[in-house]
Amino acid sequence: MNRDLLRDDVQKWIADHTFSDVKKLALAKNPFPDADYKELLNQISARAKAKDKLPGWFNTGGIVYPSKISVEQTSSEKTAEYKSHLVSGEKLIDLTGGFGVDDFYFSKQVNQVVHCEMNPELSEIAAHNFKRLERHNIVCESGDSTEILKNLETRFDWIYIDPSRRNDTKGKVFLLADCLPNVPELLDFYFSFSDNILIKTAPLLDITAGLKELSHVSAIHIVAVENEVKELLFEVRKDFIGSLQIKSVNLLKNSTQEFSFLISEMYVESEFGTPKKYLYEPNTAIYKSGAFDLIGRRFGLTKLHKHSHLYTSETLVHDFPGRIFEIQTVLDYDKNAMKTHLQGKKTNVSVRNFPETVEKLRQKWKMLDGGDSYSFFTTAYPNDKIVLLCAKI
């Protein structure tokens, strides 16, 4: 880690220029000739990225940032805080420590956290930042996590792993076996050090594929922030043979939407019907879970079509985990209806199980984006193409 970055004058300059145009700054003269100007500009870019994602780091003086990409790839404080409540006990070891956001929050729930990081510079940066953030129960170890585990010869209450996809992996299929460390291959080895393992993966991972690769999965958490799925968390417990729980979570600004179920509950039949007074659209975490029939049954809703994944009711269900709308008009999708109600109008367009894209519909009917009106183009039971004109509740 470059110690020049810790100088008071350098830190002040970085803070003062956090939201400056880095491309323009790159053309200017380096105000600190004895410092690496490229590194200073990286601090500005990375700090700007941290403002909303990592406010605790952003608002603490003397923080050093790795590359902008590392900041983009790290957990947000929101997701890190959520996963910290899944662990407890005396000791946790993070085998893929990185920038250390997850470990900062783990250290609030566990008495001692070991942060393992292969890159020695990143390990040094994390150790420095933990001191600035006054987290004194985190130990940083640099090197291969497998060797660190062997050398420590310690039992842990939890092992945490955020495997990264290998650069030489080709194709779009995302498997845990394609990542480093190779968790499926090392699972028995990990169980010799802990009975509880928490694995974070990107939302791209197919849940069914993940379950085929891993044994003893007790729970899967699908974590979204502001309706965008950010990560999947697999709880793996030694010798677990019970029923798998799936928990979809949508972390909003002032609230949290949660929907939990056992995988054995998924296989129910939906009740299908035509649009009623209210329309319900599940959040993205529920979409990722695949619980399309269960969500309707759990809340007593009628589903519009097997493949549309939109639901309706005559009376309002306030605590539905997603967006809720009042249906104002139901249109058959035809030329006359579109010309009368939507052509040239401002509306927020959504498509669910419909043969045309949002872009094509906007272009075709000259609809403007935005406003308070919401238009759902979908297929309703038994197989009718319709448009629902709604107001958001």
TrEMBL record:
Q: Which GO terms describe its molecular function?
A: methyltransferase activity
Keyword Methyltransferase on entry: yes
Top-level lineage group? Bacteria
Q: Which Pfam families match?
A: PG_1098_Fer (PF22013), Thump_like (PF18096)
- Keyword Metal-binding listed: no
Q: What are the THUMP-like domain coordinates in residue numbering?
A: 322-392
Keywords (alphabetical) are: Methyltransferase, Transferase
Matching SUPFAM superfamilies: S-adenosyl-L-methionine-dependent methyltransferases
Which positions fall inside the PG-1098 ferredoxin-like domain? 278-321
Q: Which GO terms describe its biological process?
A: methylation
Q: What is this protein called?
A: Class I SAM-dependent methyltransferase
